[in-house]
Write a structure and sequence with these properties.
The protein has about 325 residues and is an alpha/beta fold. It has two domains: about 220 residues, Rossmann fold (3-Layer(aba) Sandwich); about 70 residues, Alpha-Beta Plaits. It contains eleven helices and 14 strands. A six-stranded mixed beta sheet has the order 6-7-8-3-9-10, sandwiched between helices. Strands 2-1-4-5 form a four-stranded antiparallel beta sheet, covered by helices on one side. The chain has a four-stranded antiparallel beta sheet with strand order 12-13-11-14, covered by helices on one side. Helix 6 links the parallel strand 7 and strand 8. The longest helix has 18 residues.
Length: about 325
């Protein structure tokens, strides 16, 4: 059974369609990316899945429960981290955790204390447990907010722009923690982000949305290839001659070929990377070429994404 499943999920605010007939599924233990520029409908989708607002049309099930008919059960089994940490600045880190643990119904004091210590240690905040959250850096507040979202051991975690506005070191810390959560606790994570480096590193699959609608779904590699076509092969040679060029052009796996005479380099467009690469290397050797290097040229997910959404990424 999928952890998250939607069918034609739609949300309208008056004449504005914020989410437009989204259909997707997330498997248990998967980190799934909800990708798109700001205003694409990512936050509204998460709010519907967390049973914070009701869809206008369509349906969704989270952990097997209907987000409208079983909204209380859904809220009990999910953790959510919004772009703003929503902490109480006048409370200490430990007091914040105590407050939210009680709100989630962890009534046993011993169990609550054990869980809070476990999480604050996991997020390297135990030594700062008696410090007020208002004095924390943005990165530390984000860690504390993530610990708060996990205090009731949710099966599914919704993270809305968890690294937005963080310095590079803090953003890396949050990415490392997400990776560890997935591996250590088999946590299902829906990651909403416009930061493509997060998705490329963490997500097994993702869906790119724009104007509330789905553009494409797949793994980072699949998204790249479906948006930009097959990769290119860069082959550097001691010397490029006409015999080598003719030999490569006759291969049916080659879609195009360009030559940089000054650098003795060939850029070969491929229909299939795995099938074509060994054939190209063999043809060059048979034609008397001396290969210095072979490198795959593939656009980053961010480059492919910007091409698809028309430069709307922020």
């Amino acid at each position: 059974m999928p952890s998250i499943e939607t069918e034609d999920l739609t949300k309208r605010f008056g004449s504005l369609t914020a989410v437009d007939h989204l259909s997707f599924r997330v498997d248990p233990g998967e980190i799934f990316g909800l990708l798109g520029p700001n205003g694409a409908g990512k936050t509204t989708t998460i709010r519907m899945l967390a049973s914070l607002i009701e869809p206008t049309e369509g349906c969704a099930r989270v952990g097997g429960h209907d987000v409208v008919k079983e909204s209380l059960r859904v809220r009990e089994m999910v953790g959510i981290l919004t772009e703003s940490p929503s902490l109480y600045d006048r409370l200490t880190a430990e007091e914040n955790m105590e407050f939210f643990a009680e709100a989630y119904g962890i009534t046993d004091r011993s169990e609550r204390s054990k869980r809070i210590r476990e999480l604050l240690e996991f997020f390297d905040l135990w030594e700062r447990r008696n410090d007020k959250a208002g004095g924390f850096s943005k990165g530390m507040k984000q860690k504390l907010a993530l610990a708060r979202a996990l205090v009731h051991s949710p099966e599914i975690l919704f993270l809305d722009e968890p690294t937005s506005g963080l310095d590079p070191r803090s953003a890396k810390d949050i990415r490392d923690l997400m990776e560890e959560l997935s591996e250590r606790e088999n946590q299902t994570i829906l990651l909403s982000t416009h930061r493509l480096e997060d998705a490329e590193r963490l997500c097994s699959r993702g869906m790119i949305i724009r104007d509330g609608g789905s553009l494409i779904v797949g793994s980072p590699d699949e998204l790249r290839r479906r948006m930009t076509g097959s990769p290119f092969l860069e082959v550097r040679l001691r010397r490029v001659d006409e015999g080598i060029i003719r030999s490569i052009r006759t291969l049916e796996q080659v879609s195009n070929l360009s030559i940089d005479d000054d650098a003795n380099k060939m850029i070969v467009g491929l229909k299939d990377l795995e099938d074509a690469t060994p054939l190209i290397v063999r043809r060059i050797v048979e034609a008397g070429g001396l290969i210095l290097s072979v490198e795959t040229l593939e656009p980053s997910l961010e480059e492919a994404y910007i091409k698809l959404v028309g430069g709307e990424a922020e």
